[in-house]
Amino acid sequence: MLLENKDLIRFEGYVIDRSGWTLSWEQEPIALNPKSFDLLVYLVDRRDRVSSKDELLASLWPDQFVEESNLTQQIFLLRKALSRHESGRKIIETVPGRGYRFTVPVEIVPHPQSQAQVQQQIVLSATSSVTEITIEESGDENRTHAAARPASIDRRSLWIVGGAFAVAALAALGWYGWQRWLDRSAGQPIDVVLTSMDGTTGDAILDAALIDALRMDLSQSPFVSVVSASRVRATLEEMKHKPDDALTPAIFREVCERTNSQAVLHGFVARIGQHFLITEAATSCVNGAVLAESKREAQNAEDLPHSIDKLAESLREKLGESRRSIARFDTPLFPGNTASLEALKDFSQSQVLSNEGKFLDAISLLRKAVAADPDFSDAYYNLAAAYRATQDFAGEREAILKAYSLRDSASEPVRLAIVALYHAAATQDLYEAERNYRNWTELYPRSAQAWNGLSVVERDLGHHPDALVAARRALELRPNVLGVYANVATEQMLLGDPKGALATSQAALARGLDGDYIRQHLFQAAYALHDAELVQEQRDWAAAHPDATYIRTEELEIAISEGRFSDAHRMIPPLNASFSHRGLEETTNFILRAEAMNLIETGDVAEGTRLFRTAPVDPKDELSVLGLARVGDSALAEKYLHAMQAQFPQGTLWNDYRAPEVEAAIAMNAHKPQDAVSALERARPLEGREPVIPMLRGNAYLAAGEPALAEKSYRQVVDGPDQSPETEELPVCWLGLGRALAAEGKRSAALEAYKHFLTLWAHADADALYLKQAKQELAALATKPDSK
User: Fold this and answer.
1) DSSP alpha helices (H): ranges in 463-543?
2) If you ran DSSP here, which 8-state letter would residue 449 be given?
3) What is the pTM of this model?
4) 297-321 pLDDT, tens digit each
5) In sequence order, which residues have a C-beta less than 8 Å from that of residue 488 and are 6 or more positions away?
């Protein structure tokens, strides 16, 4: 419903004044750029429906060619502006695969100027009425005087009513003043650079842990934002300072200026026996003036975490954060009396290892942390994230379930993180996970962790452009974290940009972020670009690092994709032994099932089946259930599938992705390709996540005697952006495309498709099934005339 320009629009405490082109909240103006304001008004006017991305692009940028990322950025800025309400309702909703929608009710209020005009009209009418009455009274003076005489009023009643009104007015004024006091802040949000503390507790690990604790406490605040440690290190590198250089206050003031921050936080810790004194001062980047200062005492080392909590709370208030904001976003790092100094130290060390990509070592320390403090919600969340990085999904689920049970004791950013990962890993409702990650990024737009988590969920949903935008945002915020570079490189490869992935991987190495995790992406990009010298460099690096499992996994998957099954068979045992040797049994089983599925897809069915049966079947594992369907155990596959659908009724992948895939495999085994086509229709919203669904649909259409539809499905893959060398669906779809075109009578096009397949399989085993079939079919096709 389109609204008139003179109307005010109210919702969730916000007011849009179209005539003045302003947005305000609780009478406080909110700065919006013109494009964001146009976007907000457009969505409000069409709040009864979803506005597609194409529609919004055409409306906001008429007759211009702009990338979708421009719209994404405007949505982000708009959500950030609309993040002050406390109801928790999401005002701008992303409808996956469709667009955006304004979701909250609005109230239409006449503009004050219009009301003034109406009041002026009323006054004029009243004046006219009085004039008329006066004229009438002149004709009969006695009658009109009697009519005009007011009735007698009880003076006591009048005083009572007046007193009640006065009390109510005073109460309302007091309440309003109290609310204003709670909301009062000392200005705009502030960015601070946190430095290490002078002095020492006598324990170097504890010294670092206290800084981490202060950073975690301050990270709760939407008003005070701490520049990430990685960004500080990167800035120091730009200034040509080495990590072991003596860093003076002047140097940190320059870091503050270079990062567009406003203050430097510098502290001191003094120890006298078992007693500690901690002080922190915030000084201006501009002139070094002290903006805020706070100090706290701790009776012993075990009391230090609680002292840090109170120190952070005091600093936030003195830096200008409102009391209401502090009350809402102030959860102690260790609630009650459960603080464990050893847990804090292990947690702090684990974060350093995770940032370096050493997830197994981080897991070991995090296990120690939660053993020392079973209520440490932050540690359980980090443990779940580390398990995910090592593909131990059972460990991830167990850790996030524990974290979720402790979420109410966590700080607000950690609670948001826990809830988002809980939906991604436990309920497996990816749409709800996406919504929670976006809520997190809206409330804490400078949280690299939030943006990185959002990128992973967007990838799982097949929204690769959105995933890349989020991953790049995370990288801007955390340029010294190896895993963030890997996420950006992954999305660049999936979007057909191997040069970008190569540059991203090399940028990580240039920052000293070396390791198997980033080398895998470097190898993948170099292989896609046919850079033989760079490929060999990575192989040499892997040879010098026996535990380089990621790059060896990449080599294995490329061998399968190219039909080099003998090489793949040789690579699998030592790779699995390497995982097993490091205690990663779940990861070993995951790799076995995944590579078994890849072998079956590429025609090496006997070896794929054998390999699948070497790993124990896990009824809760997607690849176990899918593998059962692929190897012909249909009844057991259906049983486990239904059990998982009952356990995860909102599970996006179980219900909308794996279920169609499993049902299609069972239908194809039963020679019912039309049933397979019907089953795969449910997976269309998610088929962008990887090319397997279009490939299976093409196979089903071809088996059903519908080659034109098969051609369309195969072309989704062969013409798609993902041309990664390990994508085994790519050559298989070229072969399927050749068969579909031949069945349509398109001889020339079919010949080209077959030749493309043979090029991709130029180094395949001579006895590979698909290679032999392709050669036979090509030879037969070469003798036939073109019918179309």
Assistant:
1) 464-477, 482-494, 498-510, 516-528, 532-543
2) H
3) 0.63
4) 887 777 787 788 888 888 888 888 8
5) 468, 471, 472, 475, 501, 504
